[in-house]
Design goal:
Order of helices and strands: HHHHHHHHHHHHHH
CATH superfamily: MFS general substrate transporter like domains
Radius of gyration: 21 Å
Number of strands: 0
Structural class: mainly alpha
Strand content: under 5%
Length: 389
Amino acid sequence: MVVSENELSVKQKETRRFMRVFSSASFLNDLGSDMIYPIWPLFVTEFLKANMAVLGLIDGLGDAIVSISQAGSGYLSDRIRKRKIFIWTGYLCGSASRLGYALSTMWQHLIPFRILDRSGKIRGAPRDAIVADISTREKRGRNFGLLRAMDHLGAACGVIISILFFSYLGYRNLFLLASIPSLIGALFVFLFIKDRKTREIYKGLSLKDLTPNLKLFLILSAVFALGSFSYSFLQVYAREFGFEEWVVQVLYLIFTVTASLMSLPFGKLADKLGRKFVLFLSYSLWGVLCVGFVLTRSYVGVVLLFVLYGMHLGAIQPVQRTFVSELSPTEYRASILGTFQMTVGLCALPASVVAGLLWVNFGMSAPFYFSLVLTSLTLALMLFVKEQA
């Protein structure tokens, strides 16, 4: 079908408008969520008097809800052929949960609001499906990179606000303030995004709809996720290494800002040199990071490793989603993106548990050795993945 210049211009304008809205909403949501990140553990354990087991339960429950909500929203989005409602509702969930945190007077109150908070991730797969649908192959990596850049930039700004204003506002007022950005993001999506009309009928997704190539990529992503433990381990490592507590927060800012700065360039690089090349690079960066944490003996070296971690995030997060969206049949795109995010999320749970057990029983270096083995296996499997032409 021949597309006229006028139709092409309209589509390009729509794409730019959608990306502006999504980028702004992503920035605002992460601004709000990361305003509470530095104080969340202290809020639960000191302000509400819960112990570490309770903190682990609440955070673990949140991680599980994220995985389920991503897959569920992807499936429903494809089934009802609607995307927008999941996105603005997801942002509203995040905003409402922070209001709930502010009003909580005991740790038991946090559980329903934590579930509400992490259920807000229903926005992920439908939003990514829209971005994939409106993007040409030549700019798809760039667009996903832009979204991740704005996510990380919002997170960095949120942490800075938390550090600067917590002593003046206290827990409750800071939580109330953190609810506002996501509410604005929800309004942006509700007012300025429109679902595309389609007459296609959803026929249901089964394993036979996944190509062998996509199945292999899901498997290797799961393998990598099993060794890709939480960044909290890197922060604890830095603390054990001898950094002051406030410096550890600065290290968090360093890798967040690095990821923000690198996401868009890596997305563009994936458009020019291919998704597989950048993914191979991202896994290699993690492998180098593991070796670095085992061998480094200097403070400067640790700082540089946090920069490297930011580069790894900047490469892997946008390009993984780009690659999965392109390997997916269009009619199942949100379902498969949600399934991918659920797979990685579920593997992240045992990854941190195993890393913790290795740390306690065999020392700080043990998780990095284990992760290095799984990273090597991931790189080997990646050689057999074919990039879509």
